[in-house]
Design goal:
Layout: H1 2-56, H2 61-73, E1 81-87, E2 90-95, H3 99-103, E3 110-115, E4 122-129, H4 131-179
Antiparallel strand pairs: 1-2, 1-4, 3-4
Length: about 200
């Protein structure tokens, strides 16, 4: 009797814990992925504003080229960047060579940030590959695929032990009732000093 009740209680509790854990894992991966993209946006936006300011003060082509080369060569976001500066629709500078074609090629799966200062006809486009954020999200998803079942198993074992401990007085009471026979109707069960339903 105890095992059946114990198992049913465990299954009911797991029916609550498992969906909540899976939903929390899914939400974590979604928030994590969006946060990575937002961090990339902020970093690239700052670089685009710096480039736009440099262009607006009529920097020399060499200074602009050096800055674009430096930005495109940075790999702090996990991949090199592609930078294109246009003025009135005409490309003024790009880094590396051919970046304009890559930035406007939708099949390349690049995350593109465009910045145009309020005053002026300058447009700065900086693109970075989305693979970095995608790989980090995939790694988190893989860890959760291993961690969630392990967590559920540990919770199930813990619940099995706790439920068993709490049902032990009921089992003892059931055994005591079995010992009371027709010849011993005056026997009483020991409450064990518990102040609960048992």
């Amino acid at each position: 009797m105890r095992r059946s009740l114990r198992l049913r209680l465990l299954l009911w509790l797991l029916c609550v814990v498992v969906p909540l854990t899976v939903a929390a894992g899914w939400l974590l991966t979604q928030v994590f992925g969006q946060r990575l993209v937002r961090d990339v946006d902020v970093a690239v936006q700052e670089e685009a504003e710096t480039v736009a300011e440099l262009v607006s003060v009529s920097a020399t082509p060499d200074a602009l080229g050096d800055l674009l080369a430096k930005i495109s060569g940075e790999t702090e976001l996990g991949a090199s960047k592609y930078v294109v500066v246009s003025r009135a629709g005409r490309v003024v500078a790009e880094a590396p060579h051919g970046a304009r074609d890559l930035v406007h090629d939708d099949s390349r799966q690049l995350h593109v940030v465009r910045y145009a200062p309020p005053a002026g006809d300058v447009l700065v486009e900086i693109a970075v590959r989305e693979t970095v954020a995608r790989h980090a999200t995939q790694r988190l998803r893989s860890l959760l695929l291993l961690g969630v079942p392990l967590f559920v198993a540990l919770v199930a074992i813990g619940l099995w032990v706790v439920i068993g401990r709490e049902l032990r007085p009921l089992e003892q009471a059931a055994q005591g009732l079995d010992r009371i026979g027709v010849d011993d109707l005056g026997a009483r069960l020991d409450g064990g000093g518990r102040n609960d339903e048992v």
